[in-house]
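re: that chain from earlier
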Amino acid sequence: MAAISGFWQSWIARYTADGGYWYVPKGKSIGDLGTIQSQLRLLKPFEGRPWRETQRPYLARLAQSGLTSATAQDDDLKGIPMSRMLAQVFGTLGLAWIDEAEAVTLTEAGEAFIAASNPAPIAARQAMRYQIANPMAGGKATRRIEVRPVPYLLEVLLKTKTLTRTEYILFCAKAQGFGDIDDSIDGVESWRALGPRQRDRILGALDAVAIDAGSGGRRSSIYNTIRLDASYALAFWTASGVLAQTATGGEVELSIPRARLPEANRIVRASQTNGQFIPFETKKDWMAFYGDPARQLDRATALSYFTDTERLDLVRRVLDEMPGYSEADKRAYLSMMVSEKTVEDILEHNLELIEPGMTLVSRQLATEVGRIDLFARDRNGTYTIIELKKGKTDDDVFGQLSRYLGWCRKTKARSGAVRGIIIARRIGPKLWAAADGHDTAVELLEYDLRMSLAKATRGSTPAPG
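^ sequence. v structure.
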């Protein structure tokens, strides 16, 4: 590397230090949306059935419709890898939850996708909201990244105007967070000041640094790994509609279409002022967010998620960043969290306080539509969803409960019988109105935690226990 300057030698060392990058699963993640829509429509009749039992009949249905040449009867079993690839496509786009041993479930985004006369706007919204890292994609190194790629690329492009595929690979695809944007811009400008021979030397040096490519034992460079994935990644980011790819001088070039510049500026401003990376704990937590097209990666969503998962430190951090919360408001919110956690702790072991014969199935049950506080069955065996309000608005908590009830009908309660219970410190008129108008029985309960203290008297008799 003698012909390479010290600046670029140092940059190469940083670039090759780990294997993390903006990974997008390979496959038809965003290619032919019309075909993906047809394939998802054919999955819909299998909803609620275990994926393990569904793959072969689903592939047979695809083959009958001319949507795949692979069948489950192929001697080499190509049909099963085909079904797994489609499962990855649907998961990457947030359209369906597919797990080997669990029931197939279409998300709200998936339902909208198959109902749309043009699925492109749904795909655009999903690409815009995609976050790296998330629990469904990437290895350990990638999981240290905290970026929404589309807003990041927009902010870079508002300065650089264009990005070649190579510039994307070198200066964006390994960014760890939004704090790296200035480094990305500076890197592009420095790269453009180099001559062709200097660039070739740097690329050759990058490609010569091997990394472990996986359990197969083969080794490759991180530069080549990202290069091979770039076509899938760029297709995904440009599906947002606010980014475009064009072939210029033999290389693909990324840019913002002129007509979308005002929108690009709005997206960047919103990301800077209210954007929030959320470290989702499980695949189901991620799908619960990503499968709901109405939700955004903002501070309100983060506050709700951290409250649901009882992460007091992160709740406090988000409250500190949100305008309009006084110190008294923050203390009241955290106090509410502690109170409702106490109620949940008590009810976990004493569900008969709600109703005789009620038994717990699971606490904080992670599902592909969100986490259920207490999942129970009553004395008649009817599944019962019990939710604590936890600082949410009336509309939010009722909407959340409705999603859980729908999930339960699809995956658990084949008879369709389910119940819902909301527990809050105080039940307001909006919740009463929502409960009265819901097609499923929803009960509303209020709790009251009281503790009295009396000064100890020397020589008093201790209370039993």
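The chain has a mean pLDDT of 89.
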